Amino acid sequence: MSVRVRFAPSPTGSLHIGSARTALFNWLFARHHGGKFLLRIEDTDSLRSTTENTKSIFEILKWLKIDWDEEPVIQSNRLERHKEVANNLLKNGAAYHCYCSQEELATKKERAVKSGKSYQYDRTCRNSNRKIDGINPVIRLKTEYSGNTTVDDIVQGEVTIHNSQLDDLILLRSDGTPTYMLSVVVDDHDMEITHVIRGDDHLTNTFKQIQIYNACHWNVPKFGHIPLIYGPDGAKLSKRHGAASADDYRDLGYLPEALSNYILRLGWSHGDDEIISREQAIEWFTLENVGKSPSRFDTPKLRSLNSHYIMEASNESLLERTLPFIRCEISEIQRSRILRGMNGIKSRAKTVIELADLASIYIAAPSNFDDSCTKYSTKQHIELLLDVISIIESTTPLLEEPLCEYVKELAKKKNVKLIEIAQAIRGALCGKLVSPSVFEIIEILGMEESISRIKRFVDYFK
Ligand code: GLU
Predict the structure, then answer these.
(1) Which domain, by its residues, includes 41?
(2) Does the global pTM surpass 0.90?
(3) 308 belongs to a structural domain
(4) DSSP-assigned states of every residue in 94-150
(5) Atom of ligand 1 at shortest distance to CA of 6?
């Protein structure tokens, strides 16, 4: 039987980084086995689900290069089928109408809590077969309450519970809408899912879902529950930690290759390999190598992977990825300057935001000078900069190496360190003291622009 897995996000917000990892693990599992990776949008919580969120989930999956097979299934389109299954269970005696009112149940719950017991529905309607006119009943499953249920989880191993821990769960609410528990099982069955790979916060649901499969006489798929992702403080990763969704990381300037390599390694390993290409990941991925304990998000590690992938990327593709962060239209000249300067920029940037910041050197003269530049605005520095202007004017062709040599000679003649002059030039050209080689920048900007920037600096501090 060929593998069919699914990723089933609820479109109630942007895609959590843990869910992105669940999607990636499912995708790799499918591709590794030559099977199918399906999408199901679980949008039955109509108050919190939006089409914008669904759209943004599709987009971020595409950005992560996680493509799906077949048309995505929209769960809310399948309500009639979910109801049909519940009614069939009712007809064949595996489910029953329950007329207990909310008040009745709340009182029983309160009583259980007061006496220190955990609450479970006492099966009043299952035992009495009662019918109360004027009340719309819910449909409950006749859960098996003797014996055990064991899940042989591919990640967690064997997990067993005693069936007495399970409630007679509700399949259809009194307003006729199906519950999450029912919808998931019916959809997984109808989509012919062979392996359910999802976060381990769903492990307890699995025992209830198995009861529904059994009642329907359907094959139970295999399960693999992946541990959650925690923040550095050991709490479940959330917005409180700064960034928690895949969109957040995209907007912070991480490359999709870096983010997916990072989330792959977060909880899954292949020896000591850290840099893993998609092809290798497909070849090596198995659920058996997913760890059982939660993983902690480590931003420095992600940054270092990102800088690796930035160095690997072609300059053209980096420019394309940088443009959305530049937030202004750029001319052909600016574009070609950035491309020429890309090697110097990319070795200094760990994110695309940092790339864009450095690329701004090639777009316009600095709009202001960082406080750190003041140190290089003394009378002596200003005089040195005027000498540099003369050097630039007389160096033809205006290339990095001879420029550097002439400025070195100037430093020697004036008995100052080269770095003193270089920093003053850097401040003048960039408005800050971090940049690629200043001689490279002058070569790329050309005579006119370089001199005009240095003059602005001189006039500003003179
Ligand atoms: N929609 C559920 C969630 O987003 C996933 C359900 C499942 O994978 O079975 O947590």
Answers:
(1) 4-71+229-297
(2) yes
(3) no
(4) SEEEE---HHHHHHHHHHHHHTTPPP----HHHHH----TT-PPEEEE----SSEEE
(5) 8
